[in-house]
């Protein structure tokens, strides 16, 4: 699919190059500006497709191989930009530990964990006027951490112990929404995250304040040195 899309994009890019050359020759600045916007859009589409191809290749690998958390997060975010709610309705802050180590993981497992946690963060903020997601990668001598913080509704102390139980959810099932746009759930998202992290001895830590938001922290142990 990506290969088939790249062919007409190449035609568009070549045509834009020709128009740009003509605009320069006749000194038509407005035409030159239009070609600049088209070229930027084509470049962005190509980048997204390259990311999609890389993600697809990585997710075909079902054995352990070195994964850099920063690279994974940045690729997944680029794909999430296709979600207009994520792109336009939520402020994002990203802080990456540039020295973070690559560790043996199954890419598709961790990308699914990231996707589930981001979706939960967006759902938690759906009634909020101020929506902000902060993603942090960090490490210490023993572990690599990925924090996903939101400014959502928060979680009560009574509900925290039940979050990873299968089929537990505070969201209504599909078709039983009380208001338009209300997020729905099956109660399997966080349970799935924990199951996907088990092969790497990974965990998820949670801190939350009702009415202020939550922080979900993925904890991934580093391989022990002999």
Characterization of this structure:
The N and C termini lie far apart (45 Å). It is globular and about 70 Å long. It has 226 residues and is α+β, with helices and mostly antiparallel strands. The model has no long low-confidence stretch (mean pLDDT 82). It contains six helices and seven strands; from the N terminus they run H-H-E-H-H-E-E-H-E-E-H-E-E. The strands form two sheets. Strands 2-4-5-7-6 form a five-stranded mixed beta sheet. Strands 1-3 form a two-stranded antiparallel sheet.
What characteristics describe this protein?
single chain, 226 residues, alpha+beta, 5-stranded mixed β-sheet, two-stranded antiparallel ribbon, 7 strands
Mean pLDDT metric? 82
- Anisotropy-based shape: globular
In sequence order, what are the helices and strands, one letter per element? HHEHHEEHEEHEE
Task: List unreliable stretches of 5+ residues.
Answer: none
Task: Give the CA-CA distance, first to last residue.
Answer: 45 Å
The rounded Rg comes to 21 Å
Q: What does the main sheet amount to?
A: 5 strands, mixed
Q: Roughly what percent helix?
A: 40-55%
Number of strands: 7
Structural class determined from secondary elements: alpha+beta
Number of helices: 6
How large a portion of the residues is in β-strands, by DSSP E? 15-25%
The strands making up the biggest β-sheet line up spatially as 2-4-5-7-6
